Amino acid sequence: MVSVRLTVDGLMVTAGRDKTISVWDKEGNKGRTFTITNDLPVRATLTHDGKRVIATDWTGRVYAWDAADGRELTGLSLNPPPIAEQQQLVAARIADLEAAQPKLEARLAEASAALIKAKADVDAAKTDAAKKALAKPAEAAVKAVADAKAAIETAAAEIKIARSTVDRLKLGAFYAQVWHAREDFSAKKDEQKRLLAQAESAKDDIKQAEADIKAAKKVKATTKEEKDKLAKRIKDLEKSITDNKKLASTSKSAADKLTKPLTVEEKKLQVLTSDYQKMKAAAVPAPAKSARL
Q: How far apart are CA 36 and CA 20, in angstroms?
């Protein structure tokens, strides 16, 4: 056992080293069991309403099941591959499903033909004993047809989900472009603000240095030591003014050079954001279960 969780209403959820998640009632009776197909589970729990079982494994994958009927609702990886790789995986999955369709259709045709023959054999039987003997093969043929139809429907549903997943991945990839464009724009905007603030700070330092020089020149030094010290003070302040003038000029110039690129990038960001919103509005809602990769 690797995890035990109790709910407020007395239910218990356990996760075992055999990769099973189990729900137990108040009397300690084992109820429905769910299986993790990846790595060992870390922990499992029920949602607040008791309708879903949530579990995680050591790879970071999150599982969710319907507590009532045991259906796996979705799977979420906390360490998903890049979007481009996910697109390749889903495309390969679609190709596999589409390649398997002719075989599924052939299986249905074969099962349908077998069913027609089985029914004909039953109809042609002369005695009740013969009809009874042929009943089981006929029932098996009916089940084979039903299974073949179900397989085709399942494959069609998976293809639909996979294609929807492709669309959502495209939307995600486009959003990544928007996000990077927004981050780049914000970074350059912040850099421009920093440069302008640096230029203003340098100007303030110049004003302060000029005031300090003016005050220093009013000081009456009597000894040679005092005069030398005052002269050095004024010289340092004058150098500070020169340095700050250069800093203010270069900072303002660098900030001004960013204005045009920022205008271009802002327009680009507006277009990307608008296009993304249009894509998002036109996108098909996500299915209850994502395509298996």
A: 6
- For 59-110, how does the pLDDT look when each residue is reduced to its tens digit (9 = 90+)? 888 888 888 888 887 666 667 788 888 889 899 999 999 999 999 999 999 9
pLDDT of residue 109: 96
Question: Residue 227 domain-assigned?
Answer: no
Return the pLDDT at 140.
94
Domain count, the chain: 3
Closest alpha carbon to 20 in 2, 6, 7, 5: 2
Residue 226 lies in a domain: no
Directed axis angle between helix 83-124 and helix 128-217, to 10°? 170
Q: In this model, does residue 293 exceed pLDDT 50?
A: no
Helix axes 128-217, 224-282, angle to 10 degrees: 160
- 8 Å CB contact between 84 and 92: no
Q: What does the pLDDT read at residue 50?
A: 83
Once rounded to an integer, what is the mean pLDDT over residues 257-284? 92
Structural domain of residue 8, as residue ranges?
3-77
- DSSP lists the bridge partners of residue 198 as none
22 Cβ neighbours under 8 A, 6+ residues apart = 13, 14, 16, 30, 31, 32, 33, 34
289 three-class SS: coil
Do 137 and 67 sit in the same domain of this protein?
A: no
CA distances from 248 to 196, 200, 242 (A): 8, 7, 10
Share of the chain above pLDDT 70, in %: 95
What was the pLDDT predicted at 285? 58
Phi then psi for residue 184, to 5 deg, are: -65, -45
Considering only residues 207 and 85, tell me which one the structure prediction assigns the higher pLDDT: 207
Element (H, E) at 52: strand 52-57
Q: Do residues 71 and 94 share a domain?
A: no
Sheet holding 52-57, edge to edge: 41-46, 52-57, 61-66, 72-77
